[in-house]
Amino acid sequence: MTFNAYEFPIASEALQHVGASAAGVAITLRRQPLAVSQTDADRLEASGVELAYLCGHEMPDGSWRTHSGIRRFTAVAASVVSE
Q1: Domain ranges of the chain
Q2: Across residues 6-15, what is the average pLDDT?
Q3: In angstroms, rounded to a whole number, what is the distance separating the alpha carbons of residues 68 and 19?
Q4: Count of CB atoms within 10 A of residue 15's CB?
Q5: Which residues pair with 7 in a beta bridge?
Q6: What is the rounded (10 degree) CA torsion for 78, 39, 33, 22?
Q7: Which of 49, 22, 17 lies closest to 33, judged by CA?
Q8: In degrees, to the nearest 5, what angle opens at C-alpha 56 toward C-alphas 50 and 60?
Q9: Measured between alpha carbons, how far is 60 from 45 in angstroms, rounded to an integer?
Q10: Which of 20, 27, 53, 62 falls between 20 and 30 A from 44, CA-CA?
Q11: Can you give the pLDDT at residue 75?
Q12: DSSP string, 5-47
């Protein structure tokens, strides 16, 4: 499966990109933080790709923490097309 994604070195940068563009979702795929469209995330999930949705939480002291919700599926081949 081929899909479009922006790759980031750390999860918080993927979240920042999604927040700034107001489009898509931040995920990790094979431990790589990515920003993808919701459509591509849905396609990956439906195809059985193991991924984790990323989310950020503001702590009471004003700092931010990044968390992931792992979605486990049977792994299938996927390739990233970076823009």
Answers
A1: 2-78
A2: 92
A3: 16
A4: 20
A5: 34
A6: 160
A7: 17
A8: 145
A9: 33
A10: 20
A11: 41
A12: EEE-SSHHHHHHHHHHHT-SEEEEETTEEEEE-HHHHHHHHHT
Return the sign of the alpha-carbon dihedral for residues 10, 14, 19, 25: negative
Rounded Cα distance, 24 and 72, in Å: 20
- Measured distance CA(20)–CA(18) in Å, rounded: 6
Choice among 5-9, 59-63, 69-73 with the minimum mean pLDDT: 69-73
User: Taking phi first (over 0 means left), then psi (-120 to 50 degrees means alpha), and beta for anything else, what does residue 43 get?
Assistant: alpha
Cβ neighbours of residue 53 under 8 Å, at least 6 residues apart? 25, 26, 27, 41, 68, 69, 71
Q: Can you tell me the distance from the alpha carbon of 26 to that of 19, in angstroms, rounded to the nearest whole number?
A: 9
